[in-house]
Amino acid sequence: MEHQDELFRLIKSLSKSEKKFFSQYVNLYEKGSSPLYLQVFNFLNDEADYSEERLFKKFRDKTFQKNYPVTKHYLKNLIIKTLRHGDLTVRDDRDLTVYVLDIKRMMAKGLMPMAKRMIEKLKQEAADDEKLLDMIQLIAMQRGLISMGYYRQEPEITLDILDEEEDLLLDKVKQLRQIMNCSIKLYALMHHEGGTLPAEAILQIEELGKKSFLQNYDKLLTAKAKHTFLQFWTLYHCALGDYKKYYAYACQKLEFVEREKIPNTVSNWLIVGHNHYLAASLLARNFSEFETRLAYIEGMQLKSTFHDADRFQTVSMFSLLYYIYHYNDVQIRKYIAYSEQGLVNFAPFMHKSFSYTLRTTIAYAYLRINELDACLKEVNELLALTSAETRRDYVGHVKIINLMLRYKMREHAYLSYLIKNTYRFFVSYLYTTPVHQFVIAYLKDAMKTKGRQQLQELNVRYLTMLKDLRYNPGEGDMALVMMIEDFMTMDTSFDFIKKSA
To answer: Residue 139: inside a domain, yes or no?
Structure first.
């Protein structure tokens, strides 16, 4: 889907309500006729994938084919236009800037009483949604109305009161920005050089945690600031490898989102909260509410397709990792099917890096339930997809799966080449993460062992080291840790190493 036509992807991204609004909009202005661009829209909407050849078989007119680029451009812009109009009528998360402009138009026409009522209504909505900058604009408009005498009968609205209100808003904005800036810096440090945490980055992370404005939760003035505060400390302990504290803050953040009245504009907080909770549960091996939380987020009904794609990413990845860890073949098969369908449905809304990570985990899941043909198909496709533009850590994950797969398929002669190839790949990997360094060291030592007992002793030692390993707990590293842990506990690991060395 990544290389599909832009217009086709745009049409496929529309929700049912957005498609309905588009059709109603066209019918209103075309007076019930069926213009050519609407026919093209309906045809592409019914297609499973994009094919210009099939399109031209449907519309055989040579003039249409010659003018198709113009028709496509017009249709694409018309869809975007109707999305803009549709947002004003169907979105829960309204863009108040549009309504601020409406108020300015009313004031320019001299309709001050109407503008005054609109300001007061919109100001309350902005306060409920913590749209602080919109509130500052509305206060400026109220000042203008005061100068024209429109608040003479309302002593609760004066210039001094508005000044105090604006000062408090500016304090809220400053407070939120400080915490947000630290969260952004923390996130950047966590993903330094593809996920490594060198000593310098760790020191910088620890320095961020010493900021004075990150020490007192009770002084925070807005729900957004409180949530960002909890987000920072959740990621902070995650980055430093303290998974017990990571789990504790993830629970606190999720409890905050469920307990507090949150702005309508941030409906994805629940998804992000569950994402961190499920990740922390896996890392801390605390599964007391894992399945309950997973079922809850899987059943959520979201109007935003972008948020629904975020929900899918959380459910698909962590359900597979959880049930792989617990050897539940029935649930693994269920979530393989769920993940594969979601990769098709949400393709326009997901970064391709997540698609690679999820497909790698699907391949590993097939391996775990001994569906070797399906695993082989996934591995071959992933190896073919990876190229110079692909992050090389994904290639490393696929190579590890391929090693275990080929052993299960008893391709012992091929394994000799594969294990050396995999080892050389990891050694030459310029920005090797802590997990990759661990894999390199293990493979190197494993190939030197003599006898099953030596390898078993090595496995015990490395499994102990793995428990203390600090790594970036993104989905990719979590999956690789599970893979190598699974491999080291294989009863046949000695035969695997010896036949492939």
So the answer is: yes
pLDDT in tens, 433-458: 777 778 778 877 877 777 667 777 88
Q: What is the DSSP letter of 263?
A: -
10 lies in the same domain as 82: yes
> Residues of 127-147 as b/e, b for ≥16 C-beta within 10 angstroms?
bebbbbebbebbbebbeebbe
Residue 157 to residues 96, 149, 150: CA-CA distances in angstroms? 22, 11, 10
Does residue 118 share a domain with residue 66?
no
Angle at CA 8, nearest 5°, toward 65 and 266?
Answer: 150
**From the CB of residue 307, how many other CB atoms can be counted at a distance below 10 Å?**
18
Structural domain ending residue among the three candidates 129, 157, 185:
157
The string of pLDDT tens digits covering residues 192-234 is 544 445 677 888 899 999 999 999 999 999 999 999 999 999 9
Q: For residues 475 and 279, what is the distance between their CA atoms, to the nearest angstrom?
A: 8
Q: What is the DSSP string of 392-422?
A: HHHHHHHHHHHHHHHHHTT-HHHHHHHHHHH
CA distance 495 to 274: 41
| Domain limit, last residue, from 139, 157, 175 | 157
Domain count for the chain: 2
Comparing CA positions, the residue from 205, 229, 228 lying closest to residue 216 is 229
pTM: 0.70
> What is the rounded CA–CA span in Å between residue 177 and residue 161?
24
Domain extent at residue 106: 96-157
- Residue 235, number of CB atoms within 10 A of its CB: 21
Residue 332 and residue 316 in contact, taking contact as beta carbons nearer than 8 Å: no
DSSP for residue 348: G
In a domain, 148, yes or no: yes
